[in-house]
Amino acid sequence: MDQDTPRVLLITGASRGIGAACALRAAEAGWDVGINFHRDQAAAEHVAGQVRALGRRACMLQADVASEGAIEAMFEELDAELGPLGGLVNNAGIVDVAARVDEMSAARVARLFNVNVVGAFVCAREAVRRMSTRHGGRGGAIVNLSSAAARLGSPGIYVDYAATKAAIDTLTLGLAREVAEEGIRVNGVRPGIIATDIHATSGMLERALTQVDQIPLRRMGTADEVARAVVFLLSDAAGYVTGAALDVAGGR
Ligand code: NAP
Description:
Blueprint: E1 8-11, H1 17-28, E2 32-37, H2 41-53, E3 58-62, H3 68-82, E4 87-90, H4 106-131, E5 140-145, H5 149-152, H6 159-179, E6 184-191, H7 198-201, H8 205-210, H9 223-234, E7 245-248
Parallel strand pairs: 1-2, 1-4, 2-3, 4-5, 5-6, 6-7
Helix pairs in contact: 1-2, 1-9, 3-4, 4-6
């Protein structure tokens, strides 16, 4: 990260799981953090308190990333509260209950794409408008949360979710090349099975546990292990890394 690059980071979906772990590791690395959440204000408040305890500034930003207007308002609030943006982690993401493609409604698929893909595109747009030297910004870094599902397809469970993450991989690659000369690096992280609430949401907690046998490292990953990869990609140590997708999936 250039010395001039602002140390203000926005993380979507930072109230729980991987996003919350990213907030703590980023604060440790010297970032002030905008903590976006959707519904769970108490959880977001807890994360904000932990960031402040690490000596960094934090603000809580309620917004549904499926809403373009809410995203625009969130970035304006962040500008006012913490100042110029230097980084974005596109982390907010959802799954639905397990289903086959021949059981999926258009509404289900559209909802997943709105949150996981359209939300990430609009957040990336707002970040580029602030960080790109083309727009008078001082550069920065974007990390997009993809999933090993983008490579595996998730048959019989959530092919729709896997397809949203394949779209995220393409966003990472294309945007990285689009803004490479504008001071912005864009990378992706593809977690495997990570111990967070998301598996219970899909009714797939038991399945996630039984899949451990298929993971070469023979265990689920932790949110903190993903966060360390994210914060590395945001950092100067990754200064020559852009357009990459880093698997944090225990060898799967
Ligand atoms: P999680 O524990 O379910 O947490 C999801 C977070 O996203 C929460 O902070 C939630 O906010 C927020 N969120 C959900 N819908 C939102 C919306 N419409 N607008 C704004 N925020 C929203 O999820 P996780 O396991 O940490 O996953 C984080 C990311 O990693 C996702 O993109 C996921 O696809 C990806 N990933 C996870 C795994 C895994 O095994 N866990 C594997 C691969 C990839 P509230 O608390 O306010 O609801």
